[in-house]
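#onboarding

Welcome to the new folks! Below is a worked example of what a typical request in this channel looks like: someone posts a single protein sequence, and someone else replies with the predicted structure as tokens. Don't worry about understanding the tokens yet, we'll cover that in week two.

Example request:
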Amino acid sequence: MTQPYPDHIRLGPGEDSVILLDQTQLPNRLEERQVRSLAEMIEAIRSLRVRGAPAIGIFAGYCLYALSRQLEARGWKGPALLAELEGLGAALAGARPTAVNLSWAVDRMLRAARGSAGEHMSEALGRECRAIHQEDQDMCHKISEYGLSLLQSGDGVLTHCNAGPLATSRYGTALGPILLAQERGISLRVFADETRPLLQGARLTAWELQQAGVDVTLICDNMASIVMKNGWVQACFVGCDRVAANGDTANKIGTSGVAILARHYGVPFYVLGPTSTIDLSCPDGDHIPIEERDGEEIRSLWYREPMAPSGVKCYNPAFDITPHTLISAIITERGICRPPYSLSLPALFSPPQGEPSYSP
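Example response:
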């Protein structure tokens, strides 16, 4: 598969830093950034230099490993090192509240640190962060296979925000089936919402799909309705940052509006993501914290001059909640879940060995 930048998150020289492709500079510039301190790592997450729920989890794993290498080099060890890493992990996990993969990866790394008896803690963390990355690649491929089973050659697919390789590790989630189809010579047409206010669809999704040779058409967010009305869309594929136990999902702001339009026009609406985004401890979407960002992203970002009156109040939530009643299916690496999600989602976590709980 043609992937524009396959190593967009990796360890730096000496494995005491992390190198990332700065996604805020795309599509005009391919710029890497090396982060070494906790402050730099948190800034990279908050400023969306690294973004996408799975990618943030991968990044967090590498960050904790790099920080452990630095601490061990300064003589930290044993309980003192563990306590310091727990504090660093808590700060890292608080960088963005909505995407559950961030806290999931931090918790997993800390469990590995606690279980590292008889060896350097960083050795255990090094294995774990690499395992998180490899597992994500495997998960993305499986999600792509399940998602592709829902499409036919010639279909039009509408996607919102960016859930491709840049947001994950390889293939992606919502874009994975499309890239897999391209790899296999299956013809699809994609309509990519620009995704205001940060334009992840315009800057990232359109770039990734164009680089892969996919037939992609960029549209403004408020054009999704007419594209569906024209009969050009046979399915909507979106990613997710958290899935509640009842099937409500958090994804980039504007996703719920796409789901409402899809229901009106009779277009299936699919959510794609790894099981690490499923939070069974969260009963429903009302309990998912929604990050609110600086209103300047609406007032003046991307423009030489402000495009709104100075000082005008702005409401800028980064995510919204799509009710489970609007979701046709949730596609994971373990299979395809359909309503009622209160039954199908928990079943994913206790399948027969090597078999998906739900399949096409």
